[in-house]
Amino acid sequence: EFTLIDIALLPFFDRMLFTLQHFRQFNLFQEAETNSSVQLLYKWYKFASARPSFRRTCYELKEIPQGEVVK
User: Fold this and answer.
1) Which residues lie below 8 Å from residue 64, measured CB to CB, with a gap of 6+?
2) Whole-model pTM?
3) Taking a C-beta distance cutoff of 8 angstroms, is the pair 22, 63 a contact?
4) In whole angstroms, what is the distance from residue 19 CA to residue 56 CA?
5) d(CA 48, CA 42)
6) What is the per-residue pLDDT for 31?
7) Are 22 and 32 within 8 A, CB to CB?
8) Comparing 39-43, 52-56, 61-65, which segment has the lowest mean pLDDT?
């Protein structure tokens, strides 16, 4: 069942995964094979991020665009 907490957390979690991989070269889901807590998180993320309503709100970002910093 998809709840309000899923709606609230999914965008932040999705960005966190990308940021960890890009800046720290850390893939959280590599731990999913051996850690049961991470397995549950992985299953939740795959289920929630596959929803069409979520997919329509995001795009594939291969790398962080370089640009000017606005102050």
Assistant:
1) 22
2) 0.72
3) yes
4) 20
5) 10
6) 76
7) no
8) 61-65
- Do 29 and 42 contact (CB within 8 A), yes or no? yes
Task: Tell me whether residue 9 is exposed, middle or buried, using C-beta atoms within 10 angstroms of its C-beta: 0 to 12, 13 to 18, 19 or more.
Answer: middle
- Please report, in angstroms and rounded to a whole number, the separation of the first and last CA atoms in the chain: 42
Alpha-carbon dihedral angle through residues 41, 22, 25, 19, given to the nearest 10 degrees: -40
Catalogue the long-range contacts made by 42-47 (C-beta closer than 8 Å, 24 or more residues apart).
Answer: 44/6, 45/10, 45/13, 45/14, 45/17
Residue identified by tokens 């709100």 is 57
Distance CA(71)–CA(55), nearest Å, equals 31
Mean pLDDT, residues 9-26 taken together: 89
